[in-house]
Specification:
By secondary structure, this protein is of the alpha/beta class. The chain has helices spanning about 15-25, 45-60, 75-85, 100-110, 225-230, 240-255, 260-280, 305-315, 340-359, and strands spanning about 5, 65-70, 90-95, 115-120, 145, 150, 155, 170, 190, 205-210, 285, 295-300, 320, 330-335. Bound molecules: pyridoxal-5'-phosphate. The site of pyridoxal-5'-phosphate (PLP) has 12 residues, from helix 3.
């Protein structure tokens, strides 16, 4: 068995310990004589799995009691619609567009009401985070929306926007659990888990309870109402049961690593290795404004497309997978989520140094 260093942006690397544990429990989950995949989501064993997952997530993030935690399906993309359907009471929302995912969310919201683009970094290919300290927030906006870490471009909000009292809604798909967060600053936090937490198929929504009401846009399907899932503890219908089980294992793994403060320190050190190399390199350079750099997604280029392609190919042969940049931007991108070991990044930097010497 040879595991590669997988720099995929998502679905992405998972902790090896978690995968091993899941493998051990595959045929007989703790004496039940069956796999979690085969288990009723109404069984005692499964109830314990989902309850513990929620409790561990609450502990890791310090989620206040007046926030609900939901394990849903449909990916982050379904939230692009579910958010306006549930929160756009005045049919007005303000969007900060810092990349393709934020833009998609903004376009989706426009199907349901007046979506205002109140800031954007489109003018410079989303290579920075705009100043959000004094934005023209609409007086009747139901919420202000951000994509907190821009997976494709490698930027991250280091300071949250001043929403002037409006609830902040954040897509944290690619920075979920990478560092501590003050949940109380948000109205709703959500993310697909396939970037930093678990297997594709689960999306986690953390929502302040006063935002969950019966009052949703007309025609909102039962399945797309937050209240449906809040009232049923994410068990209204069959949840993505196996995926939630793996997420639960990752939460325990994170607790074992010392929680989110420790993860942040580890991630800063890891990203620092790559950024320091890029800053000193005569061949490679980063594409993002320094102060807005993501700890999770590190895009870089040589400035020569042929050389970029050569690098990706040789890196793959050396056991560094999925370094090709997003199809819309080209170049390279190393996604270095929680489960990417320090060693993977050190080896990548050494490989880049060697490539630089040879080219
Ligand atoms: C990957 C990603 C999405 C899309 O997620 P799906 O689960 O495929 O819908 C949305 N937002 C961000 C920030 C992402 O990284």
């Amino acid at each position: 068995m040879a595991r590669v260093y997988n720099f995929s942006a998502g679905p992405a690397v998972l902790p090896e310990e978690v995968l091993r544990e899941a493998a051990e429990e595959m045929l007989d989950y703790r004496g039940t004589g069956m796999s979690v995949m085969e288990m009723s989501h109404r069984s005692k064993a499964y109830e314990t799995i989902i309850k513990e997952a929620e409790a561990d997530l609450r502990e890791l993030m310090g989620i206040p009691d007046n926030y609900k935690v939901l394990f849903l399906q449909g990916g982050a993309s379904q939230q692009f619609a579910m958010i306006p359907m549930n929160l756009m009471k005045n049919r007005v929302a303000d969007y900060i567009v810092t990349g393709q995912w934020a833009r998609k969310a903004y376009q989706e919201a426009a199907l349901y009401g007046k979506a205002n683009k109140i800031a954007s970094s489109e003018d410079e290919t989303f290579s920075y985070i705009p100043d959000c300290s004094d934005l023209p927030v609409s007086p009747d906006a139901d919420y202000v929306y951000i994509c907190e870490n821009n997976t494709i471009y490698g930027t991250k909000f280091k300071t949250l926007p001043d929403t002037k009292g409006k609830p902040l809604v954040a897509d944290v798909s690619s920075c979920f659990l990478s560092e501590p967060v003050d949940v109380a600053k948000y109205g709703l936090i959500y993310g697909g888990v396939q970037k930093n937490i678990g297997p594709a198929g689960v999306v986690i929504v953390i929502v302040r309870e006063d935002l969950v009401t019966e009052e949703v846009l007309p025609g909102t399907p039962t399945m797309l109402r937050y209240k449906t899932h809040v009232d049923n503890n994410s068990l209204y219908n069959t949840p993505p049961a196996y995926g939630i089980y793996i997420c639960g294992k990752v939460f325990k793994w994170l607790k074992g690593k010392g929680g989110l403060e420790a993860m942040k320190a580890y991630n800063e050190k890891k990203a620092g290795i790559l950024y320091d190399f890029l800053d000193g390199s005569s061949l490679f350079h980063g594409t993002v404004r320094r102060e807005d750099r993501s700890l999770m997604n590190v895009p870089f280029v040589t400035g020569n497309q042929e050389l970029d392609a050569k690098f990706v190919k040789e890196a793959k042969e050396a056991g560094f997978e999925n370094l090709k940049g997003h199809r819309s931007v080209g170049g390279m991108r190393a996604s270095i989520y929680n489960a990417m070991p320090m060693e993977g990044v050190e080896k990548l930097a050494a490989f880049m140094k060697d490539f630089e010497k040879r080219n």
